[in-house]
Amino acid sequence: MLDTLIVGASGYTGAELAAYLRRHPEINIAGLMVSAQSADAGKIFSDLHPQLKGLVDLPLQPLTDVAEAAKGIDVVFLATAHEVSHDLAPQFLAAGCVVIDLSGAFRVDQAEFYTQYYGFTHQHGDLLKQAVYGLAEWNADKIKHTQLIAVAGCYPTASQLALKPLVEAGLLDEQQWPVINAVSGVSGAGRKASMTTSFCEVSLQPYGVFTHRHQPEISTHLGIPVIFTPHLGNFPRGILATITCKLKDGVSESDINRAFYNAYHNKPLVRVYEKGLPALKSVVGQPFCDIGFAVDGRHIIVVAAEDNLLKGAAAQAVQCMNLRFGFNETQSLL
Question: Which of 36, 227, 245, 267 holds its CA 20 to 30 A away from the CA of 219?
């Protein structure tokens, strides 16, 4: 039995983590924590997330002393802001914990990336090199042997799961960059109230055009440049990514089917459609990424759908934990 701590437990992702971990037979939730300044400190977790009333009724403790909080803890999930994870992860690692970070603080091994896209100077270049990128289907072997897992972002998960089989099989004409248009529900912006995510204010619109931090994350781990445009949708949760690419001359639909089969035939949390394209209703509340595609000559459109809070965050984090400790990959997820 592993003792587990969730830091940043009051948010949407923290709630989904707690829901998965509380039914995991190998996990004991030893504590739920928030920052010492949080208005939620001292509250009962299930009062904030009543769907877990009677299931997870622990108090949200203020994190004031990392060394004390880490005592007896095997695994720490950081569902915290990027700068906060940047500061906390080294301390929990020093205490001997396995750290599973859901922020962007350790996803890209380029210090300048954080200055440009996250607005802070990264102080832990050694940990950037040690961290394993938590795209579970593609980095399982490395995940099994690391102390620091940087869980892939929500948009990057859907985008890379859709594109990687084609890239790895050498099927794309790389002279034409893949164009990713992705729409996310407002829960991706977090639980804190904001005018831009208020129900009456939200309207389908693009944001972060040419400047969104997930574009370099996607390009870095795919190994090819992409154009990525995120959109905010007026629905609570889910991501739908529609990706347009050009195929190399001579690539057939059977080549594409083979690439996706080779990548995912034994990956239970990626479902590749034999016909048709996925919709959000197929994945919301589920830990899957669903993928479908259509081909016209040398052009392919790949569509990926996921729940941004689950496969795009909490479910993938638990999947990474399962891989790291040798549990069944889908334990507590299905």
Answer: 267
Same domain, 167 and 185: yes
Task: Report CA-CA distances (Å) from 230 to 213, 236, 246, 288.
Answer: 10, 15, 21, 20
> Whole-angstrom Cα distance, residue 141 to residue 150?
14
Could you tell me how many residues make up the chain?
Answer: 334
pLDDT computed for residue 26 by the predictor: 98
CA distance 305 to 242: 9
Q: At a CB cut-off of 8 Å and minimum separation 6, what does 3 contact?
A: 28, 30, 72, 73, 74, 75
The pTM of this model reads: 0.96
d(CA 239, CA 218): 15
What's the structural domain count of the chain? 2
| CA end-to-end span of the chain | 20
Residue 291 domain-assigned (yes or no): yes
Neighbours of 271 (CB within 10 A): 17
Q: Which of 97, 154, 245, 289 is catalytic?
A: 154
Q: Does the annotation count 154 as an active-site position?
A: yes
| Tens of pLDDT, residues 299-318 | 999 999 999 999 999 999 99
Residues 265-288: pLDDT tens digits? 999 999 999 999 999 999 999 999
Q: What is the CATH number of the domain that holds 76?
A: 3.40.50.720
